[in-house]
Fold this sequence. Notes:
9 strands; four-stranded antiparallel beta sheet; five-stranded mixed beta sheet; alpha+beta; Immunoglobulin-like
Amino acid sequence: MKPAARRILHAGIFLVSLTAAAGAFAxxxxxxxxxxxxxxxxxxPQQLTLGFSExxxxxxxxxxxxxxxxxxxxxxxxxxxxxxxxQLIVPVKQALDAGTYTVSxxxxxxxxxxxxxxxRFSVK
Length: 124
C-alpha cells in the first residue's frame, strides 16, 4: 500500500473512531430537577420536573416517588414538556407530608439509550 493511501486509511479509521466514541457518551443524564436534589421545600410540590441533557421518549420513561415510610406516592404519568423535549413533568396527585422523598427515574433518550437514577428532597 502506498504511503498516501495508508495515511488516508488511517485518517478514515481515526474519524470513524471519534464518531463512535461520541455516540457512546450520548445518554440522557439528569441535569436539573424541581424540587432540586437535597432541597428542603416548605410547600408540597404539585409536580416534579426533571430536565435531561438530551431529548427523552416519554412513552418509554417513568418516574416513581417514594415517601418517608418507603411507600409509593400517587403520581400521574410522566409526560414530556410540550415546550422542551428534554424535560419530563410528573404530576403529584396528593399533598406530601413532612419528610424525605426519593424520586427514582428511568428514561430512554431519543437516540435509544437507557439511563436511570434517583435523588432525594425533603418537605418541611
